[in-house]
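Tokens for chain A. Residues wanted.
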């Protein structure tokens, strides 16, 4: 962790002079997923480096976003017809983060203006890109809202307002919970400093999520040796069925 902060400080020395600049730290820049993984928590902390005195007004606010690898999603609408629920309309979401968390030091609508949200794509709806919905679907936005609702229930989309602690407008810290169901890849982490809803500084880094141990081995052979993976899955299913049958046979005796 010390080497990470030292590297950040060295990189800041080469930046042009700015009123306020983020110096960031992470409790860990790697999350390892194994068979016992049931979630994790990343501590994000940092400080504000200044070339001028702290402005009196408006107050400094901090926004942190963590975004998982983007993926394409198809959202379908279900309707009840003749007593049966069936899929009807469908909209393809071109790009949606597999995980997305927004943490703020104040309510988001106070810490960030609408214009800056559009520019930097910070809020959850702005982080999702959906274009080219069928012309026959007039309410395509409801499909994006449905995706957000589903992801939020599983804790894969999070809006954590007023959870960042800011001390003397200089030190800040927050913790973001990562759920058990994580997609492997780079999780882009962005930190924004705002005043009066306007972004005055930003910093970007990454957290790498990777599978290890048995999880990594199974993931690799499923991608590189699909035939062997299929045989292995079949063998495991047969062994599990035989084992269950043997146990029930013993219990009946």
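Reply:
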């Amino acid at each position: 962790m010390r080497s990470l902060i030292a590297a950040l400080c060295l990189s800041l020395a080469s930046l042009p002079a700015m009123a306020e600049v983020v110096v960031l730290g992470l409790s860990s820049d790697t999350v390892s997923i194994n068979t016992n993984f049931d979630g994790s928590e990343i501590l994000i902390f940092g400080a504000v480096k200044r070339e001028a005195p702290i402005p009196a007004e408006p107050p400094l606010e901090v926004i942190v976003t963590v975004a998982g690898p983007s993926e394409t999603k198809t959202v379908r609408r279900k309707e009840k017809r003749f007593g049966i629920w069936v899929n009807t309309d469908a909209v393809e979401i071109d790009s949606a983060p597999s995980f997305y968390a927004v943490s703020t030091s104040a309510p988001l609508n106070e810490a960030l203006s609408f214009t800056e949200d559009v520019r930097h794509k910070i809020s959850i709806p702005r982080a999702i890109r959906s274009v080219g919905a069928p012309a026959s679907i007039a309410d395509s936005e409801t499909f994006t809202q449905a995706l957000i609702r589903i992801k939020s229930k599983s804790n894969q989309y999070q809006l954590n307002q007023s959870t960042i602690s800011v001390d003397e407008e200089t030190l800040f810290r927050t913790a973001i919970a990562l759920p058990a169901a994580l997609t492997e890849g780079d999780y882009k982490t962005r930190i924004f400093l705002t005043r009066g809803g306007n972004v005055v500084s930003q910093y970007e880094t990454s957290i790498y999520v990777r599978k290890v141990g048995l999880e990594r081995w199974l993931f690799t052979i499923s991608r590189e040796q699909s035939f062997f993976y299929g045989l292995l899955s079949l063998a495991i299913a047969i062994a599990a069925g035989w084992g269950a049958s043997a146990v029930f046979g013993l219990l009946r005796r």
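The chain is about 30% helix and 40% strand. The mean pLDDT is 77.
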